[in-house]
Write a structure and sequence with these properties.
This protein is an alpha/beta fold and about 425 residues long. It folds into two domains: about 110 residues, Nuclear Transport Factor 2, Chain: A (Roll); about 230 residues, Alpha/Beta hydrolase fold, catalytic domain (Rossmann fold, 3-Layer(aba) Sandwich), CATH 3.40.50. It is built from 16 helices and 18 strands. The chain has an eight-stranded mixed beta sheet, with helices on both faces. A hairpin with a 5-residue loop joins strand 5 and strand 6.
């Protein structure tokens, strides 16, 4: 079975099962060009007519002739609806699952076994005690970039210490949803159950993806400005101790934490979860090298792809103001990469003088123990460190070697991570 995932944005709205069935009929009829308008913008880039014909279509043909389509089963996954149709062919029965986003466009396509029409769903973590906190919808920032969010407030008199969660790369929602995993939701519920208020919000590139795609934006517009506004908003809320508001950045959010702190002089502390200390092009090259070797491709194929990426990394290193820079490098605008040129995250965070907690999963192949070591070397005794042997980039536990496919398996942020963050926040002055 193959996964064909493509996340993106959309506008027209239909009932999810209706939209999914229309897309399924076009897929089964091999009308790939007619299917394109139903896909999200990113879906159209990835699920091209050629890809659908040569990859998905070829696999479907191997099942034999279509004998019938049964009643679909559905599940809600964040703002998406998973719609899975049992399709009977002469040689086998396969579930064809379509992911329908909240604007009724097709955001993903997955061929699943007959006995597993839908992926396993996330379970409520044991450390989430809803009797101890309440959540309410909030709005961050102002037009034209207003963002929705959720504030988890502990029950009781307060005032409470508080944390703002800042996303990793990509168009993340407030829960930092990845397949069935919701690591920001886990963090918010776990910490709120421990008496710490938590604010999480949708990322600007998630809410305004099409609008942002037309702009030469940098991390300032993508992440920093909204995080600064989120911190100010949280500090002003009733029941919050304004002197005990900390920032928690995951991955890219942690890498940019020093920039956010530089624009807000009142933060109580910074928590880094799998935050890269190295430039993003170096981290990307390491990620690609790891995944390419996992893929089972022959050495020459792996080497060819690595050489291509190394060429892109070299282009990033050669970018400079006033040069004839290529408009796009490594899939990112040159303006975005130029803005990070020479950025020293460990040195910058040290200059803030703030208390810092650095947490790292030792199984993480995206941001590795090499980054953890760089944070330790830069911050020394001025920070607190904790590495977890069994945890991956999502701080979910397993004993297996970490792979991208692992992210499809539902899990929760490990309880020890919640406990360590809670203890650190409560100790911080």
């Amino acid at each position: 079975m193959l996964l064909y995932a493509a996340l993106g944005f959309s506008q027209s709205r239909r009932e999810p099962t209706v939209a999914a069935r229309q897309a399924l009929d076009l897929l089964l009829a091999a009308k790939y060009a007619e299917l394109q308008p139903m896909l999200t913008p990113l879906g159209r880039e990835r699920l091209t007519p050629e890809f659908l014909r040569d990859k998905v279509g070829v696999e479907i043909k191997s099942f034999g002739n279509l004998a019938g389509v049964g009643t679909p089963v559905t599940a809600v996954e964040g703002k998406n609806t998973l719609v899975s149709f049992p399709c009977r062919f002469t040689a086998t029965t396969v579930n064809i699952q379509l992911t329908v986003n909240d604007a009724s466009q097709i955001a993903g396509l997955y061929l699943r076994p007959a006995e597993a029409p839908l992926p396993p769903q996330r379970q409520q973590p044991s450390y989430s005690n809803r009797a101890r906190f309440a959540e309410r919808e909030v709005s961050i920032g102002i037009d034209p970039w207003k963002l929705g969010g959720t504030l988890a407030m502990p029950k009781g008199a307060g005032p409470f210490p508080a944390i703002v969660l800042v996303h990793g790369p990509g168009p993340n929602d407030r829960d930092e949803t990845l397949y069935s995993n919701r690591i920001f939701k886990d963090l918010a519920e776990g910490l709120a159950s421990q008496g710490i208020a938590v604010l999480r919000y949708d990322k600007r590139t998630k809410v305004y993806g099409e609008k942002m795609a037309d702009l030469d934006y940098t991390v300032e517009q993508e992440t920093v400005a909204d995080a600064v506004q989120a911190v100010a908003f949280l500090r002003s809320q009733p029941g919050i101790d304004p002197g005990r508001v900390s920032l928690l950045g995951h991955s890219l959010g942690g890498y940019l934490a020093p920039r956010i702190a530089a624009k807000d002089s009142k933060l109580a502390g910074i928590i880094l979860l799998a935050a890269n200390a190295r430039p993003i092009e170096d981290v990307t090259l390491d990620q690609f090298t790891y995944v390419a070797k996992l893929g089972g491709a022959s050495a020459p194929e792996v080497q060819k792809r690595l050489e291509l990426l190394k060429g892109e990394v070299a282009k990033v290193k050669s970018l400079g103001p006033g040069k004839q820079n290529p408009p796009v490098v490594m899939g990112l605008r040159s303006t975005y990469l130029l803005d990070l040129k020479g950025y020293d995250a460990p040195g910058s965070i040290k200059r803030t003088g703030l208390p810092v907690l650095v947490l790292q999963g030792e199984r993480d192949f995206q941001v590795t123990m090499a980054d953890f070591s760089l944070w330790k070397a830069a911050l020394g005794a001025a920070a607190t460190y904790k590495a977890y042997p069994a945890l991956n980039h999502l701080f979910i536990s397993s004993q297996q070697k970490s792979t991208p496919a692992e992210y499809r398996v539902p899990g929760n942020v490990a309880p020890e991570v919640i406990a360590d963050i809670s203890a650190w926040v409560k100790r911080a002055k």
